[in-house]
Design a protein that fits this description.
Layout lengths: L3 E10 L2 E6 L2 E6 L2 H4 L8 E10 L4 E6 L2 H11 L6 H10 L2 H10 L2 H5 L6 H11 L3 H5 L17 H11 L4 H11 L6 H14 L1
Antiparallel strand pairs: 1-2, 1-4, 2-3, 4-5
Helix pairs in contact: 2-3, 8-9, 8-10, 9-10
Length: 200
């Protein structure tokens, strides 16, 4: 099993990534929650991975945090949820938002994610109810685990801060796109994004 990859980000075209690891190009699929924190193409990157083996293909999935990968693996255990739906859930909500949704048994929130119908949402809530505590535990990995994290950028730091403030990931993406200019600091990005949000 491939646990993580560390190399150069050769290309990114959501949901697909290409990472050059010592001259070998690894193709991955990743949720938008991971894409938001990626550096520019050509820069170094490190991602946790999960390999899905199908009859017709071996598909490698990449995640910016262990929490995202843990949630992805938990979702794959739910009846009727495959990698595509699991990626959709991770793209439509942060790990923290998803866990809050399960705890609140908010099926309506899940149905707003593309590909999730009412029955699937209810099944996810029922089958993942017992997993919430385990999923919310901090990752107790090896001492070198922090080195696997993607390098922080003003954009990724601003994104994390805005999500922590309660903004939904798609809204954060829109706000940062409107606020972004080359060379802006994390603080300035957040300030501009919040100003834009206040006008909405």
């Amino acid at each position: 099993m491939i646990g993580f990859l560390k190399g150069r980000l050769a290309a990114k075209n959501p949901p697909f990534l290409l990472i050059d690891v010592n001259g070998v190009g690894y193709e991955l699929e990743a949720p938008m929650s991971t894409f938001y924190g990626l550096p520019a193409a050509g820069e170094s990157v490190a991602l946790f991975t999960h390999l899905v083996v199908r009859e017709d293909a071996h598909v490698l999935f990449g995640f910016g945090t262990e929490g995202e990968r843990r949630l992805f693996r938990g979702l794959l255990k739910v009846s009727g949820v495959g990698p595509k739906i699991a990626l959709g859930i991770l793209s439509g909500a942060s790990v923290e938002d998803f866990l809050r949704t399960i705890e609140a048994e908010d099926a309506a929130m899940l149905t707003r994610i593309p590909g999730i119908g009412r029955k699937t949402a209810e099944r996810v809530i029922i089958e993942m109810r017992d997993s919430v505590k385990k999923l919310s535990m901090p990752f107790a990995g090896p001492d070198s685990a922090p080195a696997f994290a993607s390098p922080a950028t003003p954009q990724s730091e601003a994104y994390a801060a805005l999500v922590a403030l309660g903004y939904k990931p798609p809204e954060v993406t829109r706000l940062l796109k409107a606020a972004d200019e080359p060379g802006l600091s994390t603080t300035e990005l957040i300030r501009r994004a919040l100003k834009t949000a206040g006008k909405g």
